[in-house]
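Example record

The entry below shows one chain as it appears in the dataset: sequence first, then structure tokens.
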Amino acid sequence: MTDLPKPAARPANPRFSSGPCAKPPIFTANRLADAPLGRSHRAGIGKARLRAAIEGSREILDVPADYRIGIVPASDTGAYEMAMWTMLGARPVEMLAWESFGAGWVSDAVKQLKLDAREHEAPYGQIVDLTQVNWDADVCFTWNGTTSGVRVPNGDVIPADRKGLTLCDATSAAFAMALPWDRLDVTTFSWQKVLGGEAAHGMLILSPRAVERLESWTPPWPLPKIFRLTKGGKLIEGIFKGETINTPSMLCVEDYLLALDWARAIGGLPALIARAEANAAAIARFTAANDWIANLAEDPATASTTSVCLRFTDPAIRDGAGFAKAVAKRLETEGVAFDIGSYRDAPPGLRIWCGSTVETADIEALLPWIDWAYRAELAAQPVSA
């Protein structure tokens, strides 16, 4: 019974990967033709492009004028590691995790930096009790759990008069969710997420309080060159003006500038947020109408609008992990959805990227295919002895 009729419509763009993510709808490679390739990133044209990437990010994200924004090596991972290695240790530390990347930051803080950190962890689909966090300590957390589909609902629980720093990994939240800058001291993200840029470049956003920490605290451990943000006890201001620590890809910079131009043209941050929310809402309607599939996030208030994680709930499914992989494989074979299997450390299921570069029409075209793949795979299960 695997010859079920297939849906008539197909997504125009089947790229629903959670990273790297879909390019902006206007993307074509020839739109990068003006990239200053073969030129030094320290030449005037290179610095101007890098500065435009910084200031474009500030404009679209509405980052306060007194916050520094820098382009740093090694994607969001490099940016977040840089923040931890240069700023932690001055105060008690609280580490928050509700998915694999947050758990990675916990491991690095405890096992690599040897910090006596207080750990708060929640299983996939849940979030820690943020009211139990000591915000007078330095607090490390992800805003949106890319591998669990669970996010911080808002920043209200973070005190404005906190004594510690907040270090926020916002890589699958920036450009798709409202970030409360007055409650965030260090914010990191990468280009390949919500705006669909190319990988390997990270963004580091520092509040004045974070800069003060950098200029007043010297960590007891050695710092690799690519982590050093100060010299002689003062912030290296050039990093936040486009003078990158290492050589960036000017082709990737041009691609990011194109994405920022697209974001600006469609209406900026409000439009980007609305697109992601419309995508997630389409999936929410689908799960509400079908009792065999559900959002992994247990509380709708914490459900992600970018990395939407789903689980199969049909008790007739015998091998949950194998079933989920087979469904994802069917969809890929049909060319209607690429790379939507759940993350390797997450519960088995599907993970559909709903970020701002994804068209809602493509999400709506995908959903009947998920229904088809589920029914086809269920029918293909071996008959019990």
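Notes for this example: The mean pLDDT is 97. The first strand starts at residue 68 and ends at 73.
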